[in-house]
Amino acid sequence: MTRIMNSRWPENNTSLNSLYCLGAGLTMSVLPHVQRIPGWIIVLFLVLTIWKLYSPSQVNLTERKFSITRIFLFILMVIGIIGIYFHFGTIVGRNAGVSLLVLLAGFKIIETSQERDFYVTCFLGYFLVVTTFLYTQTIGTAIYMSCTVLVMTLSLLTYNDYQQKLSYKASSKIAATLLLQSIPVMLILFVLFPRISGPLWGMPDDAHTGLTGIDDEMSPGSISQLILSNKVAFRVDFKDTQPEKSQLYWRGPVLWYTDGKKWTRGESDYLDAAPLQTMSDPVAYTVTLEPHNQKWLYALDMPGQNPELGPDQSWITSDFQLLTQKPIRQRIRYEMISYPEYKISGLNNDELQKSLQLPRQQHGRTKRLIHQWKKEGLSKKQIIKRALKLFSEDKFYYTLNPPLLENDRVDQFLFETKQGFCEHYASTFVVMMRLAGIPARIVLGYQGGEYNPVGDYFVVHQRNAHAWTEVWIKEQGWTRVDPTAAVSPLRVIEGIESALPGNIIGIPLMFSRNSLTRQLWRRLNYSWDAVNNQWNQWVISYGPKRQKAFLAQFGLQKIDWSSMIFLIIIFIVPILIYLAFVLLKSTPENGEPVKRLYIKFCKKLARCGIHHVAHEGPVDFAKRAALKRGDLSQQIYNITDIYIAIRYGSNNAQIPSLQEHVRSFRPSTN
Q1: Count of CA atoms in the C-beta half-sphere (13 A) of 480
Q2: Pairing of strands 419-420, 457-461
Q3: Rounded to whole angstroms, how far apart are CA atoms 286 and 282?
Q4: First-last CA distance in the chain
Q5: Are 322 and 332 in contact (CB under 8 A)?
Q6: CA 451 to CA 243: how far, in whole Å?
């Protein structure tokens, strides 16, 4: 008659509707992983889900016997697990683990034919929702996953609507109400629950793969690849004055060594910084750095202090790199002070050797050119100017897609192709300087940034990645020279957006420069980024320091874990009492008479030796009683169904029927 009479999947509209909701919720939880896991897993999951939804009664795996379908699905699951292992080399880790969960979700929904299966599959869907946050924690992700949780909760409500009294609209309203009622408790736990540094669980080895950012080496094409990325590298909030855009050089790793093809860093990581003579007022600012999986920070040229990340967590090297003890794998904030005008007077023997290092038997034509300049009696400063003049006047082009270079890349670029990006000009310029006996090195980082007037801060994107040089001049020390500025002054003065076509850096062609549509597009981007920035600052980056600072505003400067737990209890208990009051108030007025009838029914069964226990619900009690007294099963199920309809479905019209069934229920005690 009803679901409790048969443990198999029920064939009624309620069960089918809940199954459709479950399939939709699972699919929504899997969709964000489409580009993260192998495509064949997604296809297999969708095939299994559609198969179950199309013919729910035909796919029944509850029988304890072998069948072609059971054997086929078992073999398919084993092949799937083996495929995951061969694809990732493991079945643990972030990507492999998520792939395995998606695969198991597909096989779990196809075997869903009992109440237990439904609940397990539903909670597996909830867990898949959590896995999405291992990859991204944006506002869009939170909104989408909230909708997914709503659909999963809707499937539970539909499944438990035994009498089919609720429409989809009514069930959706109840599901939304449940989620809204949980928000106060969630906020209290979020604000007050004790925070620890880093994530609550150990992240697997592959959790930080695919992070975009500058690498610790440079070769032709390495910087230009980042120009195609619109991802945010970091955000900067200046406290007082903002430097000119042409002064926004964000210093990162420093490259010393070259083999003629690529440039790498030196071993100056633990050497003290050279003396810095400041020649301008300090610029104070706060950097919010996105994770990039490297051991360096970025600061405005030239950093004048070590950021306070904790004891021995960061330091400034002799070439003014800001290095950290561990790779940056989560968003961090740090305060900095820099000096746009400076003088670095130190140059030790080790740096002198590194800054003149060149591979042997290369750059023949470049050597002859530099030799000719020296024969003309040019000083070192004049050689620097001559090299920059060569770039600006000898038909050199700044392009994102230069011709491929082979063999001697410097000679080929300087005398043949004459087309390149910032890394081509920086590497060629440093080689020319070293051939002239001028110490030189390459600095990687970012140049420029986009001011957000809505949030009053600068956004530095990956497309702002840049490479420039520093040369040693005796009277001035290490001096920044940007050869790219000689070829494309707009790159430094106005930014990468002015030096390259807009469609290459992510601005649609329909938005021409200075057009109304482009201004509107920018305004929307500024507003959205400002919202994201606040989300990152107050939600994603809400760590121990942020929590202490927030609680200090309410006079809770010194608070330990036990005090936080006590506050949580104080705030949550009233909410729980209120919710309990609402639930009790929503109980039908006839609840007590109906309950007395059910107690009378239980007492009659107790005379037969079937006692109702406190933790047992009406459905479980009916199943147990029907197993012991099969001759009474029909009456037991009828009474239980009517009781549930009245007690939990507010079907008051069936009260007389319940009275009649309980009165006529006279089980024999033998």
Answers
A1: 25
A2: unpaired
A3: 13
A4: 27
A5: no
A6: 12
Please list the helix, strand and coil fractions of the chain in percent, rounded to the nearest 5, in that order: 50, 15, 35
pLDDT tens per residue, range 129-188: 999 998 888 898 999 999 999 999 999 988 877 656 677 788 889 899 889 988 888 888
State how far the Cα of 205 lies from the Cα of 224, in Å rounded to an integer. Answer: 28
Within 10 angstroms of residue 331's Cβ, the number of other Cβ atoms is: 17
Overall average pLDDT of the 358-379 stretch: 91
> Sign of the CA dihedral 430, 435, 436, 439?
positive
Residue 629 scores a pLDDT above 70: yes
Are 139 and 531 a contacting pair, CB within 8 Å?
Answer: yes
- pLDDT by residue (tens digit) across 350-359? 888 999 999 9
Residue 387's pLDDT is 94
The answer to whether 512 and 518 are in contact (CB under 8 A) is yes
- Spatial CA neighbour of 300 closest among 282, 314, 318, 312: 282
Characterise 324 by phi-psi region: left (phi > 0), alpha (psi -120 to 50), beta (else). Answer: beta
Which of these, 230, 231, 212, 232, lies nearest to 222 by C-alpha position?
A: 212
CA distance 394 to 375: 21
Q: Which residues of 251-285 are buried (b: 16+ CB within 10 A; e: fewer)?
A: bbbbbbbbebebbebbebeebebbebeeeeeebbb
Q: How many CB atoms lie within 10 A of CB 454?
A: 15
| 245 C-beta neighbours (distance < 10 Å), count | 16
Q: Are 550 and 191 in contact (CB under 8 A)?
A: yes
Q: How do 342-344 and 276-278 pair as beta strands? A: antiparallel
Strands 419-420 and 440-447: unpaired
Contact yes or no for 213/262 (Cβ under 8 A): no
Positive or negative, the CA dihedral 595, 119, 30, 184 is positive
- Residue type, position 323, single letter: L
* For residue 434, pLDDT beyond 90: yes
**Short-list 209, 200, 217, CA closest to 291:** 209
Q: In what order do the strands lie in the sheet with 283-289?
A: 332-338, 283-289, 232-238, 457-461, 450-452
Q: CA angle, corner 623, sides to 120 and 639, nearest 5? A: 120
Give the three-class secondary structure for 355: coil
The token duo for 485 is: 């500025």
- Are 117 and 18 within 8 A, CB to CB? no
Angle at 624 between CA 619 and CA 628, to 5 degrees: 145
Q: Name, in order, each residue with C-beta under 8 angstroms of 52's C-beta and a sequence gap of 6 or more.
A: 19, 23, 59, 109, 110, 112
Q: CA 655, 658, 662: angle at the middle one, nearest 5?
A: 145
